Amino acid sequence: MFTTSRLLALSLLATLVSALPANFTERAPELGDLTEDEALSLVERATLAPVYSKCTTANTVAITFDDGPYIYNTDIVNTLKQYNAKATFFVNGNNYQCIYSTDNEKRLKAAYNAGHQIASHTWAHLDWQTLSKDKLKSEMTKVDTALTKILGVKPNFVRPPYGSYNTASREVAAANGQSIVIWDFDSGDSVGKTPAQSNKLYDDLAKKKPSTILTLNHETYSGTAKTVLPHALSVLKAKGYKFVTVAECLGNKAPYVKKTAGKRDSTWKC
């Protein structure tokens, strides 16, 4: 019997099948062969952005920084270079500073050219669950536009402020061609942890030595940039981890859609 939900799922599949992974199954079933649960699962995978909270490549650490670009970005990039480490920066458009400032243009280009991944943290650091779909789409596309102008890339990865998302926001992210990234380790810098306390958290993490680590840090704190990061890199390097970008730790997924960079003009403003 065809239930209403199955009929809807099959109808959606007819138009969404091209968006599904090529290796979803070893066979290519007719749509009518699918069970209701299989059909609904396929529709979900085609219409909801995937959410990653852990790396999938063994022995990797993805160090990530939120809320920039900011004044400590250069310190962070320099420290990462000392450890031959790559990181990922989830940047806002207009949070601590305007992404279009000449200083932040230089910071983003330096980090990007050094091999670090630049991803989206949306425009004004608003809680996704409080936004309409149209407003969330705007928050996403304004950062995409800025990074296209500055770097010539549109990011394939986005992190929701506060780690807050729901089904509706996953639909918006999917329509925008982006995967959602959370974390499995929080340094605690944004909730008041001192550098010493954050260092202790990294020490405890290193002792546990999980297979992979996906960290949350914020580039807007001097202590994180100048004290916690060097300590974290040191203790985790001693455990034999490889420091990679989020895209790399997820199995070398494409970090960007390549575009054409722009030239500074009157639209480069917040």
Structure description:
The chain is of the alpha/beta class. The protein is built from 9 helices and 11 strands. The protein has helices at 4-16, 36-47, 73-82, 102-113, 133-151, 167-175, 195-208, 222-237, 246-249; strands at 51-52, 60-68, 87-91, 117-120, 153-155, 157-158, 179-181, 185-186, 213-218, 242-243, 256-258.
Give a short summary of the structure.
This protein is α/β, with parallel strands linked by helices. The protein is built from nine helices and eleven strands.
Q: Estimate the strand proportion.
A: 15-25%
- Number of helical elements: 9
Which regions have little confidence, pLDDT < 50, spanning 5+ residues? 1-29
Distance between the first and last residues' Cα: 55 Å
* Anisotropy-based shape: globular
Helix content: 40-55%
Task: Describe the structure using short key phrases.
270 residues; alpha/beta
What's the helix and strand layout?
Layout lengths: L3 H13 L19 H12 L3 E2 L7 E9 L4 H10 L4 E5 L10 H12 L3 E4 L12 H19 L1 E3 L1 E2 L8 H9 L3 E3 L3 E2 L8 H14 L4 E6 L3 H16 L4 E2 L2 H4 L6 E3 L12
Parallel strand pairs: 1-7, 2-3, 2-9, 2-10, 3-4, 6-7, 8-9
Antiparallel strand pairs: 5-11
